[in-house]
Amino acid sequence: MRLVPSKTPWLFKKLFPNYVWEFSSDINSDKVLYLTFDDGPTPKITPWTLDVLKQYNAKATFFCIGENVKKHPEIFNTILAQGHSIGNHTNTHVEGWHTKTKAYLEDFRKAEEIITTTIESSNLQDSQIVNQKSLIVNLFRPPFGQLKTSQGKALRRLGYKIIMWSVVTFDWEEYITPEKCLNSVLKNATSGSIIVFHDSIKASRNMRYALPKVLDYYSKKGFRFEAITSANFNS
Ligand SMILES: [Zn+2]
Prior knowledge:
Radius of gyration: 16 Å
Helix content: 40-55%
CATH superfamily: Glycoside hydrolase/deacetylase
Structural class: alpha/beta
CATH topology: TIM Barrel
Number of helices: 9
CATH class: Alpha Beta
Largest sheet: 6 strands, parallel
Bound molecules: zinc ion
Strand content: 5-15%
Order of helices and strands: HEHEHHEHHEHEEHEHE
């Protein structure tokens, strides 16, 4: 049974004003959507996702699990090399509400270290794309959307932006059909929306169906798909 609505209720946003739920559409005077992909990099799924995004000249943000970055550094580097931005999604996909803040932050730091080392050992640092677009901005998304106040505070003190979402596709849920997954976006996305997909095996059936259709539908309506970069926080 679905327990959470696809569109984030205004009350959540009001209760947690320090987290980023969406970008206001007047900052982006035109039509912009922010696609985000959690839980990768995953062989087969992430490269497929990158190919589809490329077909629509779409940029997105990938919230990576540290352990997966360690296993697949080449896929991680390709994400950045293709002009997408990346964020920290902890090292082992920990549940914030059931984890002590100290342990949570240690797990976060491990992921940060792996991400930093992977970037440093690649030739991406010199890449014009990465530097110009400031893709390496400190973004964090809590697994399961779970974050204790103390964890959120500590991460923000470390200079991280906590990126939540305004539209969730439930692509990982077995009871959600591919059509329902697609409709959760079509019914709810508006300019400035942050949309959650997963580049994981679990979500692949629904995501592979919905993503190309979302890109097609909104491209035809004149929308652009952008990565979350430091430019989103400059105003
Ligand atoms: Zn996740």
